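Thread amino acids onto this structure.
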């Protein structure tokens, strides 16, 4: 499914992390795909309220949790800079789809990073 939201389609997710050699591109690519799948789900399911959005973002956050092992295997990890960049992209997605009042901590509530 192609992303129809122009803001999202033009976004380079995890941009700051790609600029840092500490974060392996192959794992970041998987993170970017998680965010794009989240956008596709939002466009397909059209959550009616924040509670419905949080269900979708929680599922995407759990996927990021699973990436932690891949980061660690590559000598990396989701540390402060990574956490901030990922959280910012989750908030960007929420905002781009009309949920600017979303709480970033709720968007990524099940995070283990």
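Threaded sequence (113 positions):
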């Amino acid at each position: 499914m192609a992303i129809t939201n122009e803001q999202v389609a033009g976004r380079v997710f995890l941009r700051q992390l790609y600029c840092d050699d500490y974060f392996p591109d192959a794992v970041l690519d998987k993170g970017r795909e998680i965010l794009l799948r989240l956008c596709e789900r939002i466009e397909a399911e059209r959550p009616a309220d924040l509670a419905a959005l949080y269900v979708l973002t929680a599922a995407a956050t759990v996927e990021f949790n699973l990436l932690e092992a891949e980061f660690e295997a590559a000598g990396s990890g989701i540390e402060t800079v990574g956490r901030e960049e990922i959280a910012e992209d989750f908030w960007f997605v929420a905002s781009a789809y009309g949920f600017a009042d979303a709480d970033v901590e709720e968007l990524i509530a099940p995070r283990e990073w």
